[in-house]
Specification:
Blueprint lengths: L1 H36 L4 H14 L3 H12 L14 H38 L3 H11 L1 H16 L3 H7 L9 H11 L2 H35 L10
Length: 230
């Protein structure tokens, strides 16, 4: 029973930090993706190149950067967040933002190509055009969130560095599996592994369904935004 209670605590902590990080990443990445999509010329290519490069940054490097920022000698050390769930969330946000930005850009690209001219005429302010295109591409935004959540909850390197894998405080599924396997506690490791696989499969299935529905909606055709009559 003690092991079961510990497994539940680890799973709940993993879900909580990954969901919060993915939601924050969506709040940052969705507007960034729409901004890049509505950009023109070299600026668009530069932004895409930057975020594509950020996707390739090893997650352990992200963890190291967050560690240096939050350590006692770092610029944010006064916050006293190192080796806490908040530190894990910060690291996961930095990991998920590039993912969501790229997927959000892809989701917005089709609607922008179709409705971009009409939106430029009808809506003068760029941030309102961005919001409109995000609403049209909402199925793609859900896909971006799910992909980011799957990456966040399966992350181990950065989480280990900034969280410290402290029992009852910062131990999540991936770090617990690593520790229990090293200690030979395969029973707990297998249970956590099975739960993690089930969650990953669930996210994959939901992503597939959402993506398929989004493609179906695009094929059926969106109605262009109505122009304001003078």
């Amino acid at each position: 029973m003690e092991n079961f209670a510990e497994i539940i605590d680890i799973v709940l902590l993993s879900l909580r930090v990954s969901l919060i990080a993915s939601l924050i990443g969506l709040a940052i990445g969705a507007p960034l993706g729409a901004y890049i999509c509505t950009s023109e010329g070299k600026a668009k290519s530069i932004w895409l190149a930057i975020f594509s490069a950020l996707l390739a940054v090893p997650t352990v490097v992200v963890g190291l950067i967050v560690y240096l920022l939050l350590s006692n000698s770092g610029p944010l050390g006064w916050l006293d967040l190192l080796f806490s769930p908040s530190a894990i969330i910060i690291a996961q946000v930095l990991i998920t933002v590039p993912v969501i930005t790229i997927f959000a850009h892809r989701a917005c690209a089709g609607p922008w190509a179709e409705f971009g001219d009409a939106l430029r005429i009808d809506i003068q302010k760029r941030h309102l055009r961005m919001w409109e295109i995000i609403k049209i591409a909402r199925a793609g935004m859900v896909t971006a969130f799910l992909v980011a959540f799957g990456r966040a909850i399966s992350e181990v390197g950065a989480v280990m560095i900034v969280g410290g894998n402290i029992r009852g405080a910062t131990r999540v599924m991936t770090t617990a599996i690593t520790l229990e396997t090293r200690q030979g506690n395969f029973n707990i490791a297998v249970w956590l592994g099975a739960i993690l696989v089930a969650l990953s499969l669930g996210v994959t299935i939901i992503t597939f369904v959402v993506t398929r529905e989004g493609i179906g909606a695009r094929r059926s055709g969106h109605r262009a935004p109505k122009r304001n009559r003078i």
